[in-house]
Amino acid sequence: MSITSNRVRAAAYSFEPIRQFYFYSRYADRRGDPDICDFTFGNPHEMPLPGLVEAIRHYAVPHNKDWFAYRASEPEPQTFMAERLSQELSLSFEPADIALTNGAMAAIAVAFRLLLDPGEEAIFSLPAWFCYEPMLLAADAVPRTVRLRGDRFDLDLSAIEAAISPRTRLVIINTPHNPTGRIYSRDQLTDLADLLNRASERIGRRIFLLSDEPYRRIRFDNHDFTSPAAVYPWTVVAYSYGKVLLAPGQRLGYLALSPLMPSSDKQALQSSLFAAQMALGWCFPNAVMQYALPDLEGLSIDMHALSAKRAWMTEALERAGYEVLRPEGTFYLFCKCPGGDGGRFWDALAGRDVFVMPGSVMGVPDHFRISLTASEPMIERSLPVFAEVAQAICDARQPAA
Q: Domains plus CATH for the chain?
């Protein structure tokens, strides 16, 4: 008989592929080695933004005896965030709509506990970030997955509708989407909103939508962005500063309630946010990050340099015969494995000190993901390897003369 809870065992089983990859794979053996080309996680491989360092250094110096006292979602940063988010998304957020969290993962965990009872279902689309399922299982919820549609990985609204049952309480949308880089259009999101309204009426209970938007400000070619919060009133938004600042180890984010939500529903959620954050283990940002928020709000990863990396790698990989989905947002490239054997392809790259994120951890074993946060020297060293591995796989598939 196990001494751990059922929910933790279920989450551990779901996390096992990424745990094995991070701690026990060939990548784990070399992680941190300066000689490898590391395209796995969205980690920085160059020094952090100077403005980030300056803000943390400035606000780490105490101004009074209470500087490092307990900090929940404090009124001043809440008000600041509501004003900025209102400008960005063209919605009228109130300070009480904003729950400041220690990153988007905490915001998502709060949303799950706020909206889902044990045994209720949440739907999300594959390929997907590898934490949705284990986090749902840890909340005693039931994950339901559908596939994105076609080579462009569009939302499959028919599949979402077919997956909705009387137990459905939540649909998760990630835009810009990790790992594909797709940004879902306003028309797609409006169609989804119509679907959720019909389904809610059919099953006799409101289905909520969680919009996971940590890459919202990382968009290429001036691509438009519409938050589901603007088209479906029963939306909660999760956001992280770790992506736009390229500082995932400095945890700062929020959960925001759509201002379009009916006031009775919104007030019920507002009044429960503090309890959910407390019960989950103080899911608030630390004091320094809250003080620094106004200084951090205007900072961003270098989009010009990121766009140049996107073009450089996309064009080189396509010349080498790869199928690459050019991202509209995020800092990833999503590619099909030559030959379709993801394990063999990953091993061939790893044998040459090039490490990518295997698609198997995201539900698509015949694809892989490249993080463009890699340094330029890593990209320079890796491109001949990508080309040679693709050619070797192609040659191996040719029939013998």
A: 6-47+301-397 (3.90.1150.10), 50-297 (3.40.640.10)
Look at residue 302 and give its three-state secondary structure.
coil
> What is the 8-class DSSP label of residue 303?
H
Q: How many CA atoms lie within 13 Å of 267's alpha carbon, on the beta-carbon side?
A: 3
173/214 Cα distance (integer angstroms): 12
Q: d(Cα 363, Cα 143) in Å, to the nearest integer?
A: 14
- The per-residue DSSP string of 202-230 comes to HHTSPPEEEEE-TTTT-BSTT-----GGG
Element (H, E) at 268: helix 263-279
C-alpha 192/C-alpha 182 separation (Å) is: 16
Closest C-alpha among 148, 138, 145, 142 to residue 169? 142
Orientation angle between helical segments 75-89 and 287-297, nearest 10 degrees: 30
DSSP state of 228: G
Q: Evaluate if pTM is beyond 0.85.
A: yes
d(CA 25, CA 18): 10
Structure token digits, residue 49: 């933004």
pLDDT tens per residue, range 34-80: 999 999 999 999 999 999 999 999 999 999 999 999 999 999 999 99
Cβ burial, residue 232 (10 Å; 0-12/13-18/19+): buried
Angle 11-16-18 from CA coordinates, rounded to 5°: 110
How many C-beta atoms lie closer than 10 Å to residue 268's C-beta? Answer: 12
Q: Taking Cα atoms as reference points, which of 229, 230, 201, 226 lies closest to residue 216?
A: 226
Token pair, residue 111, equals 């949303």
Q: Could you report the per-residue pLDDT of 293-313, keeping only the tens digit for each?
A: 999 999 999 999 999 999 999
Nearest to 47 by CA among 253, 353, 302, 331: 302
Sign of CA dihedral 279, 281, 283, 287: positive
The pair of structure tokens assigned to 295 is 């200084």
